Amino acid sequence: MKRIVTILALVALAFPAFAADEVKTTEVESRENESREPAAEPAASDDSKQDVRFSGPIQSGQESPVEAQEGADYSLGVVTIGLWQRDADTVSSKFLEYRDIPNGAQAPFLRFQGKSGDYRYDFIGHDVSQKDQKYLGLFEGKKWNFHFDYTGIPHAFGNGGRSILIPDETTERTEWRISDTLQSSFQDSVAGLSSVGYPQLLAIVQPTLDTQPNNIDIKLQRNRTNLAFSLLPGDGNFNVDVTYFHERRTGDRTNHGTSFGFSNVVETTEPIKYVTQNFNVRARANGDWGVAFAGINVNDFVNRFDTFGWDNPWRVFDSTDPSAYTAPGNNSRNGSKTGLLGLPPDNEAWTINGGTTLMFGPRTRLTADLQFGQWKQNHDPFIPYTANTAIFLPSGENAAHAPLPANTLNGKIDVFAVNGFFTSKLTGDFRLNARYRFYQNDNKTPRIRFEEGYVRFDAAWEEIPRITVPFGWDSGYFDVYGTYDVGTILGLEVGYKYNKINREFRETEHTSENTIRGAADLRFGGGVLVRGLYEHGSRDFEHYDTIEGEEASFLEPESPAQQLVLRRYDQAKRDRDRVGAQVQYTAESGVFSVMAAYYFNKDKYDDTPVPCVLDSPFCPGGVQVPLGLQEAKFKTFSLDFDVSPSDAYTLYVFYSREDFFNFQTGRQSGANVEFNPASNWSSQVDDKIDSFGAGASFTLVPNAWFFDLFYRYQKVDGNNAFTAGTTLRPPSNPARDIPLYDDTKLSFISAQIRRKFAEAWTIGVGGFYEDYELRDTQTGSVLNYMPSSFFINADNGDYKGWVGWLNLTYSFSL
């Protein structure tokens, strides 16, 4: 498969390329195909509370040379070089979380563009040679074009971390080890304790932790390349597009599953060396009747690392007993001396698609497309049952060397999708639109039976037969809406949506959701536009079987361990309401504009009592109030204002307020299901985010002196109101709220003054200052060893930092 992708990529070089908007589409398609690979860190946090960093100088006036006259040949360029200096008061990774600002000579910007006859080129470079460098290019002729872009994306998770284990650089950090001497000492120390608890274990490891260096930096680098070719674009009736995407990820990330049991978690990093490739060929024909297209897409993911190994600080040789997964503790002090973990495996996929857009007169259009494909994963062999050589199967075979029921997954998922869109302008004022989508994820991976049982946490054999669960699902979506213009002032929209999701091996066989919506636009003239919308949806299911999802992985179902009245938020009955309004005014003169918007979203989950399934004295009438997410709300208000009274200066101001709220309930439960409501807990999270910013650009002296200024402030105020039942927290020691819940502040100010001292030369002096504060109970109080867990505790907290620069820009033409 990898050989095929390489050959296809080389063949692609023979084809010239296609337009910029198609390049953007290709990037989106690539990301969608990437969704099959293991989850990785995002380039920016999915959490809306993520603060924003700014990379460097304001590039106003540097992006583009003076454009040549239309149709004339030209060759222009602009190059900016500079001297930069940065400093921060801590080693916090947040300062350079998604950017690179080295000290010394820099090349922050360059551009070369030109035209000669039918040929044109354009090349742009940002932050040349830095980790966050970006390059864009265009080369085109009369019947072809070629686009490319290359982007570096650094991601610093944390700096200056410490561990009881030492990453082995000779294995590219795929093994974390501790000396046998130290392991033996810790094991003997635990064996000599009459009682094993956190104070005793901390006293054993603290002297070693105190001498360990703070030298673990957790960071990742993503380098992405997109190539796009098009043959016979533009006015031709037929064209072929070829795209190629390549991303390489190297480094480490956190949240690794390295654990020897409930009382022995060892945080490590996951070594990353991924390569993702995506190759796409698409042909398109168009005429007066419409457009038709067909294509093929091939995706390949390779992980250079197959396994990860780490040592158990508390054991120097293997041992086991039925309670070893609770060690080190009073019930057991046994366990495995090492752990072994399989890393995300190689996988591949292909998709074939085709479709058409048909025109039925000037008012009606029908678009339909079809795609089918297959995802496969069968490259990497399974790791053994366990790394613990003291464990034996009931058959007598050593679990560390016994053959597994299968050597590889033989994973296969067939995907199928149909999309349709219909639009028709039935009258001069009324348009009808309808959309339909069906997507099927048919998981045909064979189920693997572990007839004798499995090993828990490399610690103990569990004689509980299990079977793998190949989850699958399909989704059908239908949307119809009409728009009607009531004169020139009022525009109305009314619509209905229906979505049904079928699931395999889940608590519900299917869920369905019905949604109605309406919107109105008021166009008062004089640049005033008002828009309002409302949407209400309701999701339901016919039957909810709490036990089915849990028992799907057991060959011989036992008593349930999951809460029987839990309703999972993606399947629970839910009502959703959305309200929004937007007002915009733009002066006819264009001197200023203002926009205000408000949106509110509320999800209310059904709290009607549900059956307990099993008999219990705590279920009067056989029902209880369901557990899970009860309510979620999101509100946002934004205001933007800008004014440009003359060409000499521009001012703009923006403000936004976001409120996130969610309320959920749960119940503390052990090996047996707990029915007593006195074991319930609740969490009510309320986050408020205020963001304010302002900027200005001034022409102090026409064609000579320029000044740019920008300021931004963001504050996140989070709170988690927590309650716990009397069996969890007695009245004498109640549960406490968490007021410091991801509270952050970020202040940023940037200024730059530029002097154009010759026709081709501009000098700029500027800098920015940032002040970041993080106040979070969990993050701020983590130690390298806490009850049951070793933590790296890398620094991603407060910092104050500044960057200054002196840039020289030269513009020229040839």
Question: Any overview of this molecule?
Answer:
The structure is a single chain. The chain is mostly beta strands. Helix content is 8%, strand content 52%. The chain has 6 helices and 39 strands. It has a 26-stranded antiparallel barrel. A 4-stranded mixed β-sheet has the order 6-7-13-14, with no helix packed on it. The chain is globular. The chain starts with a helix and ends with a strand.
Q: Descriptors for this entry?
A:
52% strand; mainly beta; 26-stranded antiparallel beta barrel; 6 helices; four-stranded mixed β-sheet; disordered N terminus; 814 residues; globular
Count the DSSP helices: 6
- Tell me the overall shape: globular
Question: What Rg do the Cα atoms give?
Answer: 31 Å
Q: What is the chains' assembly state? A: single chain
Instruction: Give the terminus-to-terminus CA distance.
Output: 47 Å
**Content-based structural category:** mainly beta
In short:
The protein has 814 residues and is mostly beta strands.
Helix-strand layout with pairing:
Blueprint: H1 2-12, H2 20-34, E1 74-88, E2 104-116, E3 119-126, E4 134-140, E5 144-161, E6 166-167, E7 175-177, H3 180-191, H4 198-211, E8 216-231, E9 238-253, E10 265-266, E11 270-287, E12 290-303, E13 307-311, E14 338-342, E15 347-360, E16 364-377, E17 411-425, E18 430-443, E19 449-450, E20 454-456, E21 460-462, E22 466-467, E23 473-486, E24 490-503, E25 510-525, E26 528-541, H5 546-551, E27 574-586, E28 592-605, E29 610-611, E30 623-624, E31 628-646, E32 649-667, E33 680-701, E34 705-724, E35 743-756, E36 761-775, H6 777-780, E37 785-786, E38 789-790, E39 799-813
Parallel strand pairs: 7-13, 10-38
Antiparallel strand pairs: 1-2, 1-39, 2-3, 3-4, 4-5, 5-8, 6-7, 8-9, 9-11, 11-12, 12-15, 13-14, 15-16, 16-17, 17-18, 18-23, 19-22, 20-21, 23-24, 24-25, 25-26, 26-27, 27-28, 28-31, 29-30, 31-32, 32-33, 33-34, 34-35, 35-36, 36-39, 37-38
